[in-house]
């Protein structure tokens, strides 16, 4: 009887030891990203802080599925739209941001799914605009200068949609003015702003607020029906062939893309001469 008890004790102790070792090994296998996911999936506020600080869906990133395989950005965004997944940042040896899909489960805060769907939709909408031609147009700015798709062919056009009562639209204007100043000698780059406000209101506005973009009034219908946009501000970079290369909502995102990829440097013999002293 004692021998059986001793044997049972030995087996039990051995099984407990193996179980603890197995758990410890499983812990070691979990990456830092796995641990963060385990924490934030249970708390919508924690997840949202992480998402806003680390995930930038408008950026150029490497999208990975649940298993770590590379997938198309469209597929990645469509998975987020279901509300069943969130994006997690993965450390890599490259300078390119890398995001991987993590599936939410029954332990997850149900509010996360609703929020990620709403947060992803405008990014998906913008992504689907990229690569398409900018609609035909005929605009006249506050100074009476006209613009059309044909007239701007061969130029990079930086478009901003806005209206006077839009606080974020106004707050970013000093930063946009600095951008215009940086490219002031580049005749191949045009900064065009489309406002929903009437000309009279805009003429009054520019007497108190400096905005260096060329301002086109009364474009609300074009913005809504031709571009399909309803969020302000929205920035669109149109290349020399009239194709929309980037669509984003914030000035920093637009400026980052503009300066990194969209405008070719002028050749040395094309650089404008310095102004006379």
At the fourth CATH level, what is the homologous superfamily of the largest domain? Glutaredoxin
Largest sheet: 5 strands, mixed
Total number of domains: 2
User: SSE order, as H and E?
Assistant: HHHEHEEHEEEHHEHEHEEH
Coarse shape: elongated
> What percentage of the residues does DSSP assign to strands (E)?
15-25%
- Rg, nearest Å: 27 Å
Give the helix tally. Answer: 10
CATH topology of the largest domain: Glutaredoxin
Helix fraction bin = 40-55%
Unreliable residue stretches:
16-29, 266-272
Protein name: Thiol-disulfide isomerase or thioredoxin
Keywords: Isomerase
InterPro entries: AhpC/TSA, Thioredoxin-like_sf, Thioredoxin_domain, Thioredoxin_ResA/DsbE_sf
GO molecular function, one term: antioxidant activity
Can you put this structure into words, describing what you see?
This protein is of the alpha/beta class and 277 residues long. The protein folds into two domains: 33-129, no CATH class; 134-261, Glutaredoxin (3-Layer(aba) Sandwich), CATH 3.40.30. It has ten helices and ten strands. It has a five-stranded mixed β-sheet with strand order 8-7-6-9-10. Strand 7 (189-195), helix 8 (199-205) and strand 8 (214-216) form a beta-alpha-beta unit. The protein starts with a helix and ends in a 15-residue tail after the last helix.
